[in-house]
Design brief:
Layout (H helix, E strand, L loop, with lengths): L2 H16 L2 H21 L7 E7 L4 H12 L3 E6 L3 H10 L4 E5 L3 H7 L5 E5 L4 H25 L22 H22 L2 H8 L2 H6 L4 H29 L9 H26 L2 H19 L11 H7 L3 H15 L7 H21 L6
Helix pairs in contact: 1-10, 2-7, 2-10, 7-10, 7-11, 7-12, 7-14, 10-11, 11-12, 11-14, 11-15, 14-15
Length: 372
């Protein structure tokens, strides 16, 4: 391979990108827009659960329990009803997701040290929210029971007193692990989408015949076309990392240099995949559609970003090994939240490298300098 030929192809591609405002906008604005949209839209934190209360006790104990729920920040009391049938109306209309019904003798039983049942009704149409809401209620009720026992001078019932410490994400903010995963998903889509148009564009505009007539070899042509988008990809990754840290407040505990180095390996594979798609499609529209389907859906569903791979059926777990975003998601989460070093990420790095080299080799083999 001759560097001058690669440089000439890269220079030609840069001029083409510069003269195409749509490509420039897609290259720099799209990652930022997607990170904004998904970063604020996707969250697993459940707060301000709309709650309706049916308090038949009207005592100090029941009022303290209701106030404690409101003060927790997890529940927002939207109304107090005076009939059981009104609870159904709130839940049916969606005005409330949680209903708490307190019996008449709630305060008396508590003061006597007798277990006081508390009825909680949760809208289960969203099972994830319902499960989290029940966990919040259990924690609040246990804390309340311990306080009441302490005021009465009695020992709390639980024998085990767990002291829990959460590592890497102590506040359990979903944004801290969603944003790094989002960067992987967005870069997987952008990398393949950008280069999926390059070769197809040459065929559509009739300039491929001129390239075929030159002495430029296939590897030189592919590398020359990859280089400008490789630089653009680096800028996109850096922008995404800066937004994650300074806008979304995600801690970056690891090395930014290691992150950029491993991002380069991931970008090489993603850009090579886009070139491969472009070689096979020979149409910009078809190439863009294939690249979206081939990158976004596997990256979003099978990378471990939203759904734990360990919980997937065995057949799908095997398929995930062929999804490069799986390894990049693990790399980003490790560097951002754990401060992982290259020694801890050697397996993901090796598999990403193998993916990139294999896809590049296939693209090199598939492209032929002839008019079909």
């Amino acid at each position: 391979m001759k560097p001058l030929r690669i440089k000439a192809i890269a220079h030609k591609e840069l001029i083409q990108i510069w003269r195409d405002p749509l490509s420039l906008a897609m290259a720099f604005m799209m990652p930022v827009m997607l990170l904004f949209i998904f970063g604020y839209a996707i969250t697993l934190d459940v707060n301000d659960l709309k709650t309706v209360v049916y308090d038949r006790d009207r005592g100090s104990a029941s009022r303290e329990l209701i106030d404690g729920m409101s003060a927790s920040g997890y529940f927002t009391v939207v109304g107090e009803v005076h009939d059981q049938r009104e609870i159904d109306r709130y839940l049916d209309s969606g005005e409330a997701l949680v209903a708490v019904s307190i019996q008449e003798d709630f305060s008396k039983k508590l003061h006597k040290g007798i277990p006081a049942p508390l009825q909680v009704i949760v809208d289960g149409s969203d099972s994830n929210t319902a499960t989290i809401a029940l966990g919040y209620i259990n924690a609040l009720s246990e804390g309340y029971a311990s306080r009441v026992a302490g005021m009465r001078g009695a020992r709390p019932l639980p024998i085990v007193d767990p002291r829990i410490r959460v590592w890497y994400n102590p506040d359990l903010k979903s944004r801290n692990f969603i944003i790094p995963g989002l960067i992987a998903i967005i870069m997987a889509v952008i990398a393949a989408l950008l280069t999926s148009l390059t070769v197809a564009r040459e065929w559509e505009r009739g300039t491929m015949e001129q390239l075929i007539a030159t002495p430029v070899r296939v590897p030189e042509l592919i590398i020359g076309k990859l280089l400008p988008y490789f630089g653009i990809g680096f800028v996109d990754v850096l922008l995404s990392v800066l937004l994650a840290v300074f806008l979304f407040g995600v801690p970056l505990k690891g090395s930014i240099f290691l992150l950029m180095f491993l991002s380069g390996i991931f970008l090489f594979g993603g850009l090579s995949l886009g070139i491969l798609i472009s070689i096979g499609a020979k149409s910009q529209l078809v190439a863009s559609q294939i690249s979206m389907v081939a990158t976004f859906l596997p990256a979003f569903l099978l990378s471990g970003f939203m759904f734990a791979i360990a919980n997937m059926p065995k057949a799908l777990r095997v398929i995930t090994y062929g999804v490069p975003a799986r390894y990049f998601v693990a790399i980003l989460k490790g560097i951002f939240l754990k401060g992982s070093t290259l020694r801890l990420l050697v397996m993901e790095t090796a598999l990403l490298s193998v993916f990139g080299l294999v896809v590049f080799a296939i693209a090199n083999r598939k492209f032929r300098k002839r008019i079909g």
